[in-house]
Amino acid sequence: MASRRISSLVSRSLPLLSRGGKQTYVGRGIYRYSTAAALEDPIKPPVTVQYDKLLINGQFVDAASGKTFPTLDPRTGEVIAHVAEGDAEDINRAVAAARKAFDEGPWPKMTAYERQRILLRFADLVEKHNDEIAALESWDSGKPFEQSAQVEIPMFVRLFRYYAGWADKIHGLTIQADGPHHVQTLHEPIGVAGQIIPWNFPLVMFGWKVGPALACGNTVVLKTAEQTPLSALLVSKLLHEAGLPDGVLNIVSGFGPTAGAALCRHMDVDKIAFTGSTETGKIVLESSAKSNLKPVTLELGGKSPFIVCEDADVDQAVELAHFALFFNQGQCCCAGSRTYVHEKVYDEFIEKAKARALKRVVGDPFKAGIEQGPQIDAEQFEKILKYIRSGKESGATLETGGDRFGTKGYYIQPTVFSNVKDDMLIATDEIFGPVQTVLKFKDLGEVIQRANNTRYGLAAGVFTQNLDTANTLMRALRVGTVWINCLIHSMLRFLLVAIK
Questions:
Q1: Marked catalytic residue, from 299, 310, 399, 430
Q2: Amino acid 492: pLDDT
Q3: End-to-end CA distance of the chain
Q4: Residue 479 pLDDT more than 80?
Q5: Known catalytic residue: 299?
Q6: Cβ contacts of residue 315 below 8 Å, gap of 6+?
Q7: Distance CA 405, CA 403 (A)
Q8: Distances from the Cα of 397 to the Cαs of 197, 255, 280, 415, in angstroms?
Q9: Which pTM value belongs to this model?
Q10: What is the mean pLDDT of residues 97-106?
Q11: Rounded-to-integer distance, Cα 279 and Cα 200, Å
Q12: I need a surface site. Which of 92, 124, 174, 487 has the fewest CB within 10 A?
């Protein structure tokens, strides 16, 4: 379901992404991983950290414990800032503020039109500060600045404008009933919404969570990912500048086992929304059930199959499958991380996929033309390298890549494996990195069975020129979204190319 939402919002964002023909680049220079021996010293980001405390009841405050934790620059591993480390006591303070704002404050009682106006003013402010926010997002997460400035922040703006438009269009129904009875449904805000977002798309996830909750009149306690806490604090300041009442949005930066667990267990939180790993999702669901049985919305991991049939346009399939996997450093829940290719076109696909990976531009995300920045942190970096070693040891053929890029930071070479078998860890586990695994198949029945033999079910891609084949796979694959001869990632790639 989340994948469908992204696709529709990206298509609606098209007019915004050209930014009037303006290209905002910081620095120059392009490196290809196949030719660069090492990275230059990183460019100094054109932004400073202004907000590093918790946001509770409209004020930026220290954690009750006084503790802080470092958020790191993925390009170097060096500290960007020390951020307040919230825990259970801070969650209690934030929930109390959100509860009071919901029960006694103006937000849920405000006219929907006025809520809409505040959200629209906020969108305008974000658009005004686009490059500043994008720089902070790229600095904290490692994603290319062009991606942040030209795609993700404009998408964030469009998200809030979209949800603002829903604020005064939430209608109930009058229903026919037997006998002299009047029956009607009424949609009301649920109350205090607890929200936990991941590090791979910090602001886009902020928009998905906070936007609809506020439009409906709820109050929010948001826990940011400990790897990327900075951009949420900055835009929240702008949201209050737009007129959001105190206590309606509260932000606690901290760690899952402390702040996250306290939010899920809290008896005065009315709903939890979580995006992250499948393992953590199980804990979130259990904690919520053991407290006040609050409803939970989960968006978890993926190992999406992308099936290239024998009649597919191989060049197109190679390009789209490449972007489906390598986009955002491979850190995307619906990444095309199991590429099934028909045996008749397998060898051609492998050669072209290898050539495309060798051309991928890796380097400092603040340089123009960069396609791939560093992974988020040392833990993810080491995890990906461990999976690469596993692929080599299990007998898969390493076509290209397979090691770190440069000597500083968390950069990994774009990696392609061929001759992958379904039981290898690189084919079963969500790697969440720039590692493409290519598997061979003979017929539709076989590939359907193999593609569905997974614990994941987010998305799938199908490349074929045969309508019957497309319909067969579309109905047979047990996933939430199936793309035919296109991918959400390909749309994003088109946008990135169009702005250069």
A1: 299
A2: 54
A3: 31
A4: yes
A5: yes
A6: 352
A7: 7
A8: 36, 38, 32, 11
A9: 0.89
A10: 98
A11: 17
A12: 174
Q: Residues 413-467: pLDDT tens digits?
A: 999 999 999 999 999 999 999 999 999 999 999 999 999 999 999 999 999 999 9
> Residue 297: is its pLDDT beyond 80?
yes
What is the domain class of 48-175+182-299 according to CATH? alpha beta
Q: How far apart are CA 298 and CA 459, in angstroms?
A: 15
Residue in the block written with tokens 């989340």: 2
Q: CATH 3.40.309.10 in the chain, residues?
A: 305-498
- DSSP state letters, 71-108: EE-TTT--EEEEEE-B-HHHHHHHHHHHHHHHHTSSTT
| For residue 3, pLDDT beyond 70 | no
Could you give the CA distance from residue 264 to residue 272 in angstroms, rounded to a whole number? 7
Residues in the chain: 500
For 139-171, write each residue's pLDDT tens digit: 999 999 999 999 999 999 999 999 999 999 999
Q: Which two tokens stand for residue 453?
A: 């033999």
Smallest CA-to-CA distance from 263 within 279, 289, 284, 278 is with 284
Give the Cα separation of 68 and 243 in Å (integer). Answer: 29
Residue 499's CB is within 10 A of a number of other CB atoms, namely: 18
Residues of the chain with CATH 3.40.605.10: 48-175+182-299
CATH of domain 305-498: 3.40.309.10
Report d(CA 448, CA 473) in Å as an integer: 7
